[in-house]
User: What shape does this take?
Amino acid sequence: MSPLFQQQVPLSLYLLLSAMLFALGIVGFLIKRNLITMFMSIELMLNAVNLSFVTFAHQWHTVFLETHAGPGADAVKGQIFVFFVMMVAAAEAAVGLAIIIAVFRARATLAVDRIDLMKL
Amino acid sequence: MNVSLHLWLIPLLPFAGFLLNGILGRKLPKVLVTTIALLAPLASFAVVLNAAANASGLSLPHVETYGTWINAGLLHVDFTFVLDQLSLVMLLIVTGVGFLIHIYSAGYMAHEEGYWRYFAYLNLFLFFMTVLVLAGNALVMFVGWEGVGLASYLLIGFWFQKTSAADAGKKAFIVNRIGDFGFLIGIFLLLANFGTLSFSDIAARLSANPAWTGGILTAIDLCLLVGAIGKSAQLPLYVWLPDAMEGPTPVSALIHAATMVTAGVYMIARTHFLFDRSPSALTVVAIVGAATALFAATIGLVQTDIKRVLAYSTVSQLGYMFLGCGVAAYSAAIFHLMTHAFFKALLFLAAGSVIHALGGEQDMRKMGGLRKHLPVTFWTMTAAVFAIAGFFPFAGFFSKDAILYAAFAQGGLGIVFWFVGLVTALLTAFYMFRLWYLTFFGESRSPDVHPHESPWSMLAPLVILAVLSVCGGWIGIERFSAFLAPSVGEHPLAGSAQLEIGLSVLAVLVAALGWFIAHRMYHRPKTSDGLAADSPTGYNLLLHKYYVDEIYNLLIVKPILLTSKFLLEWVVDFAILGGLAWLLAGIAQLCGAILQRWQSGNLRSYAAWLALGAAALLLFVLVPWTSVLAGLGIHVGMVGH
Assistant: This one.
């Protein structure tokens, strides 16, 4: 084993970073009024989740290498899931931005508190 | 002897006619409708004649049972038809007169829209009436009883487009309900006390207990009497019959004069063994009859509608029959029922001929001078008028005389009944001759109408009935009651031949007096009614029929209508239906008001709730609650852990 591997960053730090990013995303979503900022907060939350997926996947990969002859199919499931999330995020970005543009054209504002036409 | 007379054919033939005409009549050609409608009662009449011809060789009563209808515990009812002297007489009247009136109807109703419908109803009536007459137990009789009520309702309201006709039909039906209620209670009491509804079984039970009188039997009798009062239009339930004149005239003749309304009398005669055991109930029957006879006759004095005069006359004559039953002279009552069927059917049919000739005019004030134009109608009607007035030797003389004599011979209260009957005879003669004069004599009071004699299909029944009205009584009450005795029992009278002749002469003299007064007043009619000039107050009271309809309206109809209106509008509609709707709406509104607070429309508050929920879920999943609680001293662990 090379020293580089032995001095790897511990798992908990990755998860801590992921949790911090997710919390930032939630807080941003809750306190911002601008739709685009809220949208970006959602992306932040998605990426925080992605980070924890990748972390766990890497961890499992290591565990498998130590216990088995080679990496199993389970070892890459987390990685694959990240691609799914990115794909959904891309689709969401496409649709969400289109809606945002449509809302802006119609209401000339992006403040969520003022987009409440459906409320009685 | 076990010869079957096929009594079931008697009702079922008209029923087949009803089905054929009722279902297919609209599409069938008129000739075929007429053929079916006339053949059915004719065939039925033929079966009755056949039964009559064979009756002497049989041991009457001849019972035919066609199977069990109800068999439930105590209650056992068969489909039983009984042919005895009483039902034979009644059947001959019903199918015979019924057939004549069918012929007449073919002419009278020829131009009607619902020709087939009319004949279907008429055949249906014959079906139910023959069931009623043939019934061997009270329940089968009740079926016929209700059925004739239905047919009567349908035929009174035949011209249902006319509000008055539809209302009259409803009135007849509803008033009859009151009577039917009494009849039904009577049937229940019979069942409770005898355990059977078969007339012959009840009679046998009674003759086995000769000491059993009064008490519950009086109660049963009075309940049956209520039924008879409703059907036979006696006080106080007579009000439907005059209104029933809204129906076609042949219907008035058949149902509301000759047959159906006599069902009450027939029922009392059929259950005479019950009435014989309760003198007090018999007295009530006689009082009802005598009161009705007099009451209706006084109203008949001043009516101007020719059919209404006849309607009140029918009520009055039915009163005579009740009086006859009430003094236990059942055969006299049935005798009068028979002769009355002849002459009253004739009176109605002749009146129908007059109405037909005048193009629908029923007001006698617009008639007059019709003797020259309608000779056949005039002469047949004359026979009927003399018969109902009780002149010798017309049919009415014999039967009315028999009832009056029986009442007088009873003595005591019977003398009062006799006197009431005699006064009624005077009134009867007066109003019948008033009708006669106003219709046929003097000058025509509608000069621009050109009356024409009716077709032969209408005149032939008139002639036959006229012959019967003249000769129908010649059989004499002695032979008639001897014939009926096995059915209704022997009731020897305490009179003498001299007394009977004396009373008869008196009755004829009284009738002649009535004729004389009518002649004085109406032979050369003045512009106003003779009675009106003499006694305006009494005249108005009579003209408005003692305001009985108004009183009933005020005391019974209005309160019921108001109560039901109140129940409908306030209790059912407002309180129950409205309340339910309000309750449901209120619940929905309340839920909405609560849930509305969540639907703030504030996107970030939604997100906050979402985050909080997720946090709560995480907390629930991640915290080892059992350990925490165990640390607090609470054990909620699962079994086995």
In short: The interface with chain A takes residues 596, 599-604, 607-608, 611 of chain B (CB under 8 Å). Residues 548-596 of chain B form the longest helix (49 residues).
